[in-house]
Design goal:
Elements lengths: L1 E2 L14 E8 L5 E12 L4 E5 L6 H9 L1 E6 L2 H9 L8 E3 L6 E3 L4 E13 L2 E13 L9 H14 L1 H7 L2 H21 L4 H13 L2
Antiparallel strand pairs: 1-9, 2-3, 2-5, 3-4, 4-9, 5-8, 6-7, 8-9
Helix pairs in contact: 2-3, 3-5, 3-6, 5-6
Length: 209
């Protein structure tokens, strides 16, 4: 199923933050993927998405250069992989149809966009994305699991560790580490014996040891 309006393909609540993977091409056309929160809004003639990549991130640099990208709706384990580059899950790409951007193979849906407005607010940017094509994949939606949700929460916190270190925000850093430890503990308990536990163990090696 495909179209240009989001609600024709995907059910969403305006303004809610959804965790997705944003894919872009670098200046030399190398594909790049990054997990981040996305908000969707419907307008009279088009739908838009709002993302807030860090100004030092590769996603931000690619959007400044290329002015286009794709939002990939993926399962929680791929969210963690794209947030932290653990190299546990393999990432394969193909080209988008309507914009100059890569798409993640195997995603549940793809939302192609152009960056219609890009501003900076301190350490973060605000990018307004005009949606050009929305397509659903063939994969079945997965059942909800607190294990994978906890893993995503740990990955989000872990992806911000370097930013807080650069800001020398020790209080914020301590809170991040508590979140990582608490979330990983829950993920390992509920996902014992699965790929979730393997990913959680890798996070422990990288951030808690």
């Amino acid at each position: 199923m495909r179209g240009t309006r989001l609600k024709e393909t995907i059910t969403f609540i305006e303004g809610m933050v959804y965790e997705c993977v944003v894919t872009t091409f670098s200046e030399d056309r190398a594909p790049h993927s990054a997990s981040m929160g996305v908000r969707f809004y419907s307008r009279a003639t088009e739908d838009i998405a709002i993302i807030r990549p860090h100004v030092e991130s590769q996603t931000y640099r690619n959007l400044v250069t290329r002015k286009s990208g794709a939002i990939n709706v993926v399962d929680p384990l791929m969210l963690v992989e794209c947030a932290l580059d653990l190299e546990i899950l393999e990432k394969e790409y193909r080209s988008a149809r309507s914009v100059d951007a890569p798409l993640l193979e195997g995603a549940q849906a793809w939302i192609e966009f152009t960056a219609s407005n890009l501003i900076t607010e301190g350490e973060w940017s605000v990018v307004e994305c005009a949606l050009k094509e929305v397509r659903a994949g063939n994969r079945q939606l997965q059942l909800f699991s607190r294990a994978t949700s906890a893993l995503v929460e740990a990955a989000v916190a872990a992806s911000r560790v370097q930013v807080y270190r650069k800001m020398n925000d020790q209080d914020g850093l301590r809170e991040l580490m508590k979140t990582i430890e608490r979330s990983i503990s829950l993920a390992r308990r509920l996902g014992k014996g699965t790929l979730v536990e393997r990913v959680a163990d890798e996070l422990i090696k990288r951030y808690l040891v």
